[in-house]
Amino acid sequence: MIAGMLEVSGANQVVTVDIHSPQTEGFFSIPVDCLTARFLFERWIKENIPDWQQAVVCSPDEGGTRRAGILAEKLHLPMALIHRESFNEEHIISGNVQDKQVILIDDLADTCFTLHNAVTQLVRVGGARCVFICVTHAVLSQMPQELFCRSELVKMVVTNTVNQDYSDCHESITEKLVVIDVSDVIGEAIRRNHYGESVRAML
């Protein structure tokens, strides 16, 4: 329905960032450029995580396996995955995170229940030393105080695709929250479209 509304209103092209479901592109009859914030996360990781070469990239659930796999491949790092057994609800960690720095990546965080559960499993079950979280779309409708209070969480890196004001948040949250600007990525895509250059080359 949203796709139809955009087209009827006169849109002739759509630019998205880390779209939650790639199948959504099929609802449009106009060109859709699906950008990613992965490059920004890669740069931040290399510049801000000590000994990042010894880290492990992890997906908090099965749905993010491809996303985590691409980041792990680009950084030449091993990957781990948290999945849940359907018959007993037990969470299983595939991959070695024992005494490792873990980079947990997801596209969307709302209540952060999945991320909080993932940090708990990585530390309690997997024996991870610390966790960095990278999230593209930080909705954060319920600011998870208990997640940010965990000593194992070093930083949560988000982008400004969702405009948020964190000034009223508790210091325990703001000191661990890092916001990365995606305007350069979107601006470059617009420039390339305007001059007929390849946007795919950015990916």
Task: Explain what you see.
The protein is an alpha/beta fold. It contains 7 helices and 9 strands; from the N terminus they run αββαβαβββαβαβαβα. A 7-stranded mixed beta sheet has the order 5-4-3-6-7-8-9, sandwiched between helices. A two-stranded parallel sheet has the order 1-2. The longest helix has 12 residues, at 113-124. The two termini are 28 Å apart. The mean pLDDT is 91.
Question: Topology of this structure?
Answer:
Blueprint: H1 2-8, E1 14-17, E2 32-35, H2 38-48, E3 56-59, H3 65-75, E4 79-84, E5 91-94, E6 101-109, H4 113-124, E7 130-138, H5 145-148, E8 153-159, H6 171-174, E9 177-180, H7 183-194
Parallel strand pairs: 1-2, 3-4, 3-6, 6-7, 7-8, 8-9
Antiparallel strand pairs: 4-5
What is the overall pLDDT average?
91
Query: What characteristic shape results from the CA principal axes?
Result: globular
Largest sheet: 7 strands, mixed
Q: How much strand content do the residues show?
A: 25-35%
Strand order in the largest sheet:
5-4-3-6-7-8-9
What is the H/E order?
A: HEEHEHEEEHEHEHEH
Please tell me how large the radius of gyration is.
18 Å
- The percent of residues in helical segments reads 25-40%
Overall structural class, as computed from helix and strand content, comes to alpha/beta
Number of strands: 9
User: Given the structure, what is the number of helices?
Assistant: 7
